[in-house]
Structures are given as C-alpha cells and as structure tokens.
Amino acid sequence: MPTRVPISDELRSALGSPTEATLLDSSPRSRVWRVELRDGGRMIVKQITDGGGTGPDGDARYAREVAALRLAARATRPTVAPALLGTDPASRVMVLEYLDDLGAVDDWTPGYAESLARLHALTGPADTGTLPAWSGPTAADAESFLALAKALDVHVPPAVTNELAGLIDRLEPSPHHALLHGDPCPGNDLRTATGVRFVDFEQASLGNGLVELAYLRIGFPTCWCAMSVTGAPLAEAEGVYRSTWRSLTGTDVPGDLADACAGWLIRGDALVERAHRESVDHLARVPAEDFEWGYVSARERLVHRLGVVAGMTRDHDRLQALGHLSAALAARLLERWSALRPLPTQDTRPWD
User: Does the pLDDT of residue 77 top 90, yes or no?
Assistant: First the structure.
C-alpha cells in the first residue's frame, strides 16, 4: 500500500475496516483507492488534493463533488453515479460505492447519451445555488478567436463580431438548471450491469445540458481522449438523449446545439488540460506551435471543431458568418499543416 488510506475512525466504524487497498490511477488533483473490507465487500476512497497546477482550490472541488453526488443520488432504477457512502470534510475524503466496470463495447454511445440525459434531468430551478453555474465563453474568448483568424490571414466577415456577441448572450447559463457533470469523457463513464454511471464530479455545475451533449460532435473538449462521433452512431445517440430528456421532463431539450458547439470552438482553454487553463491565450499559440494533449494535437482538435461548426451553420440564421469563417480557418490550417490527422473515431477507445 503506497500511501495509507485516509479513513477516519468514524468512517471505519460506520463502513468497516480495510484489509487491503490499491492506489488507482487518477488526476493530480486527487488520490483514489480501491479498498477491500473484512466482510468481503469493496468501496472506493477518494481524497481531493491541491495538486494539478490549479492552485489551492481543493476545498471548493471537494464541496462541489459531494454536492453533485448527492444530487445525482436522486436517480434510481438505474442510478447514474456511485452512491456516496460517507464523507470526511476535514480530510477532503469521500467514500463511494464500488462499481464493477464491465469494460468497453463497440456500441457505447446510446447508453452514454441516455445516462447523460438522465443525469441532466435530475435538477431544476429549485436547485439554484447548490452548485456553481456553468461558465460559458466570454468576450475575451471571442476576441482571441478573431485574433487567430487575423494571425492566419483569414478574412473575417463583418457580421461575425455581432454573431459572437449574440452567441455569448444565448449561452448565458442562468435560465438553465441541468445537472452537468463537468467532464463527461470516456473513462468517466463506467458501463455497469444496470447501465452507464458517471464518476469524477469535481467540475459539476448547473446549466444547459446541450453543452455536454455537444461533446459527441465537437470532440470531447475537456478530455485528453478527443474523438470524432459521426454518422449513424451520432444520430442515434442524440436521438436517445432527446427522447430520454422528453420522457423525464415532458419538454423538448431547450437551446440550440449549434450554439453549444460554437461555444466550445472559441474557447482556447478547451485545447489544454485543466492544469494549464486560465493561464495564457491558447488560441494565440496555435499559429506558432502545435501542442499535444493525449493522442491528438491542438491544431487537430481545432480543425475538427471548425469543421463541425461550419457544417452545422451553413443555413443557420444567427451563425452563418461564423460558419463561413470556420470553414475558411479549417482550410487554412490544413493548407499550412497538411499532415494534421482527423480525430480517432468513436469505435476506437484505446484508453479503456
């Protein structure tokens, strides 16, 4: 056991004493153990740390994950997250139900989309304040995106500036109260006997569920394992999400998926891992360097997102100029760096 499992006497008394513990892979922002109990049971112990280059925000991330897990516990038959069995705020420790992950399958997107919709539908206006509101793109993001176009000598249609201002206004999260996971990436979705269940809610928030449904199209923007979901699998997954939401809420999914995708496009911080966000203008780095995160590079992520937005906005009444700019930017990137690769496809999950 490389590090002693930080279970307090109170938690041991309530949940049992470990006989064996295995330190699992996790982000620099936490430590996670799989714990064997004397009665033959298992549980997960997670401790939030201040690591990962994000500053001393451990208390906030701990409180956010605990609050999100308690909200997620509203879902039953099936559940959408592990049960929260115990907490120790002084040590930032939470004890979670152990989930038996069945591993990856080829046709994983429908189950993912259904559980994502069920998660999003758990909260409403009465839950305002239980979690932070989702943080959308800002005017600074829009300015950085336009500066990137100019740096690459791509003409910016005059209407784009107003379109981006309108986009930012429409993505304002205050009218929406869906329970957002914050990082619904492959690896944070475990396939169990009762369906997909999500783990790692450190970045959970309240907002519009479309900003996470957009992950399938836009290439999983907060994930090291970026990938492309297209064609029939994409259509099926989005249909499952919308029908699940409708059956649970009695309403159609609010908002515009094209807006959600465009919002991710203009955010430079969606090109780098969390430890490097809110540091420099990452879009400004693209003309000079191609920095990698996981299996793909920043330029490859950006080309994919530009193509998605260009395709979604050809006939869009509020983002058509942005669509033209996106198409031109994608063409310029591929012209200058012809070796850029497409993102891995949805049937390739080597990290599972």
Answer: no
